[in-house]
Amino acid sequence: MKKIISLTVNGVSHEVAVEPRRTLLELIREDLGLTGTKKGCGIGDCGTCTVLLDGVATFSCLTLAIQADGCTVETVESLAENGQLNRLQQAFVDQGAIQCGYCTPGMLMTTTELLRRNPHPEESEIRRAISGNLCRCTGYQKIVEAIQTATEDSDE
Amino acid sequence: MLLPRFDVLVPETIDDACAMLADYADDGVRILAGGTDLLVDLRRPIIPQHVPRCDGCPTHPEGQIATTIECEPSKSDPLMSPEGSIRTKLADPKSAAPAFLVSLHKIDQLKGIELLPSGGLRIGALTTISEIERSSEIRKDWTALAHGADSLGSPLVRNRGTLGGNIANARPAADTVIPTIALGGKLTLQSSSDTRTVAAGDFPTGPGLSVLKPGEIVTDIHLPTPSPHSGSAYYKMANRKALEISTVGVAVWMVLEKPGGPIKDVRVALGAVGPTPILAKSVGKVLIGKVPTDEILVQAAKAAAGDARPIDDHRGSAWYRVQMVEQLTLRLLKSVLSGIENDR
Predict the structure, then answer these.
(1) Does the structural domain A87-153 have CATH classification 1.10.10.60?
(2) Tally of domains within chain B
């Protein structure tokens, strides 16, 4: 039997009827049509489904929609400001940190959480923060450089 | 791929959760905390070799499985043969698929880290591994647990995974459990009819198996007041720094009578070298009452290695694991000692 839950996604309140087994990922992609969040492994190994749940980087594939009842969700679609890529997104583009794009939404959301908590992370802190996000192209170096660039820009 | 069908119950108090577990016991009910293990186990395996994640994992694709693990001989325990092996039978995952999940996420009583007036620490079972990782109190006075939290899974797993879940899953390599045992942690288990306290070391009984009865919830983890001149540490040896299950994990807790003085008490807990985490009791016999010297620490490390009961698997051979228990125990005993000395 479906249950009614309410949650705020990217600043918009939603009241949705969900099957108990529905994951937050399925809710975001299929019910709300926000397909920026990707499904990868479905078992918490790859991190591409990462969203911020009440500000905490969270596997949306291993979170039931019901568990997000009353919560605030931020997806990769929330990052752009006035139709422009934000500083972090632009840094990913400029540094060539986007290859196949598989990991990008998850990398961006995980990094967004990191930079809110720690606006000037060391390289080791960046590498540790993204250690749960799998890049299939093994382009970690450019991703780390992009994140470093984004934090340098914010010094200005 | 969709998860199998189940209903989710969302209690707001521990009592309600216990009542639900009792009410739905016959229909098949599981407790949902962070979901980083349970929701993986409920999904049909996509990549067969991904499962089981450790020996005895109930998600083995063959369904009903039995594993044989070397263990200390016991005549009293029906699971163990007198020759020293244990056979654990695990349920068929299909028949074990629950009709109900009791999700604990709205129970505030289960959350938070709290210094007790007695000086000990209470950690709510639903506290995430990330919260433990970032707790300055835990890092200072219960250091081994902070090390365990640092090394568990990945940041995303730590953000969702809970201490209670890591304990209740009863995996022999659980990164927060090995330190909790070394630190002398106690668990509170609550059901609708009873509340009891169990030493963390007595909780697991086999891979994925524990003393937790149907209808019971792990509600709190209590860590005792840190003694003067004490310290602790945990080291996870694994092939990768993230998203890995340890090849060997060792946690050490030690108290000195006085700086430089004899060892008053010590506990060494070993992970991934037996069907459950192992409290290496032989170490105490070597060290307690002795002034720590290099010689005696080497003896203690050998004693710890003697207590390990590992198997060969793809993470390492039994022989290698025993060697690593010895080396890591020695290294940790030394680092904990120097930590105590530097603290004075």
Answers:
(1) no
(2) 3
- Are the folds of A3-76 and A87-153 the same? no
The pLDDT tens digits for B50-60 are 444 444 444 43
Tell me which residue of A9, A47, A41 sits closest to A27, measured CA to CA: A9
Query: Residue B123's closest CA among B9, B261, B245, B219?
Result: B219
Are B276 and B206 within 8 A, CB to CB? yes
Q: Is B63 on the interface with A (CB under 8 A)?
A: no
Give the CATH number for residue B176: 3.30.465.10
With CB atoms and an 8 Å threshold, state whether A131 touches B130.
Answer: no
Measured between alpha carbons, how far is A53 from A74 in angstroms, rounded to an integer? 7
Interface touch B155/A58, C-beta < 8 Å: no
Q: Tell me the pTM.
A: 0.90
Is ipTM beyond 0.90? Answer: yes
- Residues B26 and A40: their CA atoms lie apart, in Å, by 35
A155 Cβ partners below 8 Å, 6+ apart? A120
Q: How far apart are CA B278 and CA B298, in angstroms?
A: 19
